[in-house]
Amino acid sequence: MTIKVLLFSVLRPLGGGxxxxxxxxxxxxxxxxxxxxxxxxxxLKDWDDKVRVAVDLDYVERDHVLTEGCxxxxxxxxxxx
Length: 81
What we know:
By secondary structure, this protein is an alpha+beta fold. It is built from 2 helices and 5 strands. The protein has helices at 11-15, 30-40; strands at 2-7, 19-23, 52-55, 58-59, 71-75. Strands 2-1-5-3-4 form a 5-stranded mixed sheet. The radius of gyration is 12 Å and the shape is globular. The chain starts with a strand and ends in a 6-residue tail after the last strand. The relative contact order is 0.28.
């Protein structure tokens, strides 16, 4: 299945834009999606221990199972100032 992944802030140039499409197997988890994303865009892996992931506007853990048509947002930590 094809998942649309939205990238934010400093992650955008590392992933080649504000969104990418990622192909994963039916029943894939967020962790499996991230593994595929990092394979296709290796520079993003440097942020793996810092990013937050939301699926359809709700923050989720990496064992969350994805469904067809869901939208995944990958965000770096929020910075204040």
